[in-house]
Amino acid sequence: MRHTLHGNPDYGELVVELEAGETFLAESGAMAWLTGSVRPKGRLVGGLGRALLRKLLGGESLFLGEYRADGPARIGFSPRLPGTVLHRKLDGKPYNLTGGSFLACTEGVDVRPRFGGLKAFFSSEGAFLLECSGHGDLFFNSYGAVVERELSGDPDDALLVDNGHLVAWEPTLDYTIAGSGGLKQTLFSGEGLLMRFQGRGKILLQSRHFASLAQWLRPYCK
To answer: 3-class SS at 12?
Structure first.
């Protein structure tokens, strides 16, 4: 399997080239076009129970699209929101995604929802994340451009993040839920509760916040 990324950072698209016998998995509805001999079908990855959890708790589709090539084929995939498509090669170490950011993967990659702990219920968005593990190629997307930050592990080197701007992070990073200031500021500033990341590792942020856009559009949707 070979892949190329086009259109980043504004309108990212993933194009994969498959040989006979190769299989590729993608978020339901993400396929934009294909050429060659391909057999697409829906697939419950990990069984019904895990697929339901991924749908209800992780913000992803119940079924993934499975694309098996009978001969040379090319397939284009586009995420639901405009932004950057990213690639990460998994070598057995897990990687964390926020719900809704998964796009596609090769076989050998396991994507499962994971509870972020009771602390996550107090953040502004979902309490569940997607833990990606195994060996293979993982593709995911942001809403808007991606900003990469690297934390040094110094206790004073912490990063406060509105989790609506969070895309992915390495499991060497830990987080707690923190206020945006005192009680009055937390309740009335509009920022609410934030995620405070610490440790040594990289974190990816997105430049746009879909919930903020939806809130801005609400008065016009009449």
So the answer is: coil
Q: What are phi and psi of 172, to 5 degrees?
A: -75, -10
**Listed residue (167, 166, 158, 153) closest to 201, CA to CA:** 153
Mark out the alpha helices in 120-209 (DSSP H runs). Answer: 183-188
How many other CB atoms are there within 10 angstroms of residue 142's CB atom? 28
Per-residue model confidence as pLDDT tens digits over 99-155: 889 999 999 999 887 765 555 554 444 456 889 999 999 999 999 999 999 999 888
Neighbours of 121 (CB within 10 A): 11
Q: Where are the alpha helices (DSSP H) in the chain?
A: 47-56, 183-188, 210-217
More confident residue, 70 or 175: 70
Strand 159-161, strand 166-169: pairing: unpaired
User: What does pTM read for this prediction?
Assistant: 0.83
Say if CB 167 and CB 95 are below 8 A apart.
Answer: no
Angle, CA of 161, 165 and 121, to the nearest 5° = 65
* Contact assessment for residue 200 and residue 157, using Cβ atoms and an 8 Å cutoff: no
Q: For 14, phi and psi rounded to 5 degrees?
A: -105, 130
The Cα 52–Cα 47 span in angstroms is: 9
Token pair, residue 180, equals 């945006």
Q: Residue 36 belongs to what H/E stretch?
A: strand 31-43
